[in-house]
Amino acid sequence: MLAILGNRTYRHLFLAQVIALIGTGLATVALGLLAYDLAGANAGIVLGTALAIKMIAYVGVAPIASAFAERLPRRAMLVGLDLVRAAVALLLPFVSEIWQVYVLIFVLQSASAAFTPTFQATIPDILPDEKDYTQALSLSRLAYDLESLLSPALAALLLTVISFHNLFAGTVIGFLASAALVVSVALPSPKPGEPRGIYERTTRGLRIYLATPRLRGLLALSLAVSAAGSMVIVNTVVLVQATYGMTQQATALALALFGAGSMTAAFALPSLLDRLDDRRLMLAAGAALPALLLLGTLVPGFPILLLLWFALGFAYSLTQTPSGRLLRRSAHAEDRPALFAAQFALSHACWLVTYPAAGWLGATLGLPATFAVMAGIAALALTIAFRVWPASDPDEIEHEHLALAPDHPHLAGAGRRHRHAFVIDREHPAWPNPGRTG
């Protein structure tokens, strides 16, 4: 897997991602302490609102940003967004009112909502070989998991010698270092496409996404993943400290086991995808999510919870990490930023539903009932994924164009009925169904 780091451009981008993630992790810890400093016992309300603002920014901003990403050089855009994030982090230690936190968080997460899909859409152009790209996806998953494990530990270490306000300085340094690494390499810019209006460019990724059967399956799997992930992220502290009466260190250990399961899956993914296609692997891993959540209703104590969290992390990662491969094969290169932005927005819309559901249900119905409800959501999502993602999902599909003029360039040398790698575009506005021409 690490051999892919021999590619200088990818190596610099990967390091930029890792450094920015560590900076973001430091900011997350510092933000919690800042919320307590400003709101005291109401800090949970502040953090909950900030999390909701983050998800709203992700869902609403990503498709709009992708429309402008089609017209801007990628390197300039990525560097500019890193500088915006650094500027916001620089301002956070100086806020004195809660509303100022909300405004700055919206700006920060809006920049992230524009940065992440653009970054993700750049990688397939740098690594056109599918095996290389699969390794890059696994490394990216590993980076996210390491961030969740290392950033809190690093923050705890730093807080022994500095105040929490200074943690934001680490975030600023992280974003500036990320920008410097992006500047150090040449990136492929979007291929010029046909002129489109702002509305069409804003909605194009969503329209391609929802018209592609495999991506509708991916959206359903994203809901299953968010149901499992929300249960872990929201209710681990309640399970460990309120139900089992254990310490904060035990809570950290439980979350670490979930991350360890995800990291193990990231290492195993390239070899698994050599033997299984995306659909079989993702649906098999997705099928484990409702089963494991249902087992959560029966967990008798902390040691079994650790095993369950490790297994959930493993299935969680195997279900979602290959999604970049599906997105890459489902659009032309010029449409990839819009498609990655659509996935970013739609997947976070799932979290916007499951985050509050896991918290509210846990507080009102109790954790066993919440495990059962989240298992039901994951099972329903998995059923939908099985139904909408065809078992036969080849790249090349035979289809017929009845509406195109005989002299249309797309028909040159191929005729009205032909076969090629099929994606949604102007000549192919709908997915062909067996027995139907279009």
From TrEMBL:
It holds the Pfam family MFS_1. It is a multi-pass membrane protein. Keywords: Cell membrane, Membrane, Transmembrane, Transmembrane helix. Residues 9-393 form the Major facilitator superfamily (MFS) profile domain. The keyword Phosphoprotein does not apply. SUPFAM superfamilies: MFS general substrate transporter (SSF103473). One of its GO terms (molecular function) is transmembrane transporter activity. It is found in: Cell membrane. Gene3D superfamilies: MFS general substrate transporter like domains. Signal peptide: none annotated. The chain crosses the membrane at residues 12-36, 42-64, 217-244, 250-269, 369-389. It comes from the Bacteria. One of its GO terms (cellular component) is plasma membrane. This is Major facilitator transporter.
